[in-house]
Specification:
Number of helices: 10
Number of domains: 2
Radius of gyration: 18 Å
């Protein structure tokens, strides 16, 4: 198996099929791996099949909720470019850093006041439901819609495909971010093309 999928310590050691079912998600690729196959094994098979969308889908349900929200926020940053963070994005990021009820309330306020067509609304929605319930008080006893966090993370990552001239480069960046977060990183990785260019410059300078 590729080293790309090693040490994904944040991802539960459960069959990928079980995580997909729990996240109310399905892959379009017909897998050859057994039903008991873990996430890294399935990711490797999907990579070999160049099933990039399915790789994002699997990561969206395999990452823990808080990590999935952060992954979504990184895609939100892509969508905004150099613009200031929207209230939805800022509130979601604040919740990731301190996932408490006060910050969740700010997420709800941002959602309630969000403008129609807010590109980063998925970030706030994911953050709000990441605790697994419908809200504070009596709503805390009611479960959040199944798979909503993963669906939001998946959706905003797909939206960010248009942020680069080469969708393939954006696909790989999103996947590498998810894998970095799964290893315990902050997801702030460089695009593969930029990494290659940086390595070439280093080699040139050393020669």
């Amino acid at each position: 198996m590729s080293k790309r999928f090693e040490n994904l310590k944040k991802i539960p050691e459960q069959p990928a099929k079980r995580l997909l079912a729990a996240g109310n998600a399905k892959l379009k690729t017909e897998l050859k791996a057994p039903a008991s196959a873990a996430v890294p094994v399935v990711l490797a098979e999907l990579e070999a099949a160049e099933a990039w969308v399915d790789m994002l889908r699997l990561l969206s349900v395999a990452l823990p909720p808080r990590e999935a929200v952060w992954w979504a926020c990184l895609a939100g940053r892509d969508l905004l470019g150099d613009a200031e963070p929207t209230p939805c994005l800022a509130a979601a990021e604040a919740w990731v850093f301190e996932p408490n009820e006060a910050n969740r309330a700010k997420v709800q306020a941002a959602m309630d006041s969000a403008e129609t067509g807010d590109k980063t609304a998925h970030c706030a929605t994911a953050a709000y439901y990441a605790t697994g319930d419908l809200g504070p008080g009596e709503m805390k006893d009611l479960p959040a819609p199944p798979g909503i966090v993963g669906a939001c993370a998946f959706g905003i990552n797909l939206k960010s495909l248009k942020c680069r001239k080469d969708p393939q480069e954006q696909f790989q960046l999103m996947i590498d971010r998810g894998l970095n977060i799964a290893r315990g990183g902050n997801g702030k990785v460089k695009p593969a093309a930029a990494e290659a260019a940086s390595g070439a410059e280093t080699t040139k300078g050393a020669s």
